[in-house]
Structure formats: structure tokens, C-alpha cells
UniProtKB/TrEMBL annotation:
This is Ferredoxin-2. Keywords: 4Fe-4S, Iron, Iron-sulfur, Metal-binding. It holds the Pfam family Fer4_10. The lineage of its organism: Bacteria, Bacillati, Bacillota, Clostridia, Eubacteriales. The keyword Disulfide bond does not apply. It comes from Clostridium homopropionicum DSM 5847.
Length: 104
């Protein structure tokens, strides 16, 4: 599993660095985040949820039928949008209200 960081969107806030449990993300000399140890990523999605710039994508593995699709996360208040873009450009969004996360 791995992530991809869009340096055009990255503002160097370091939020992803601070939440990655494996300290796998670093800042380059331009102050942009990059994945230093991609093979060690276990896909916890913490960095993706923390990035307010939607600069981090998570590649969905073949084991779950990902076929080259990738995931980004966007947060608006209590609503978390899990956005999936397939390799053919088709978009899907799963919206979750965080207020309901422990409801059941
Ligand atoms: S959280 Fe997003 S904007 Fe901030 S350093 Fe990481 S990739 Fe860049
Ligand atoms: S998905 Fe988890 S393990 Fe992988 S880089 Fe992001 S925070 Fe680190």
C-alpha cells in the first residue's frame, strides 16, 4: 500500500508528518512533504485524513479491487467526504457524518 503526495497542493504544514505512526513522511528542501519510506506504509489513512489541502492520495490495492483508483479525504465541518477516483476518471464519494461514527 502506498500514498502519493501532490507537491503542487502541499503547503508544508507538517500535519501529515506528525500523525504518521511510522514517521514515513518528511519535508524536502522546498518545504514540501514527500514519502521517504513508501514500502513501509501500511495504509492507515491517518495522513490522508489530516491533510486539509487534499494533497495526499491513497492508492487502493488490487486486493480490494482498486485497479489503479485512488482515494482522497475532504472534511467539511462534521462531514467527511471519502472521494474515490477510478483510473478511467469516474468519481465516487462516500459521505460520513462524524457525529454518527459511534452511534451503533
Ligand atoms: S498535511 Fe498536506 S499540506 Fe500539510 S505537509 Fe502534509 S501533504 Fe503537505
Ligand atoms: S497511510 Fe498511515 S502509514 Fe502510510 S504514510 Fe500515511 S500515516 Fe503513514
Amino acid at each position: 500500500m502506498s500514498i502519493k503526495i501532490n507537491k503542487e497542493k502541499c503547503i508544508g504544514c507538517k500535519r501529515c508528518l506528525s500523525v504518521c505512526p511510522g514517521s514515513l513522511i518528511k519535508l524536502d528542501e522546498d518545504g514540501k512533504a514527500y514519502m521517504k519510506y513508501p514500502k513501509d506504509c501500511w495504509g492507515c489513512c491517518s495522513c490522508i485524513k489530516e491533510c486539509k489541502e487534499c494533497a495526499i492520495s491513497f492508492y487502493l490495492g488490487a486486493d480490494i479491487g482498486g485497479r489503479g483508483s485512488h482515494l482522497t479525504v475532504e472534511t467539511e465541518g462534521d462531514i467527511v467526504h471519502w472521494n474515490i477516483e477510478e483510473s478511467n476518471g469516474i468519481l465516487h464519494s462516500i459521505d460520513v457524518n462524524r457525529k454518527n461514527s459511534n452511534k451503533y
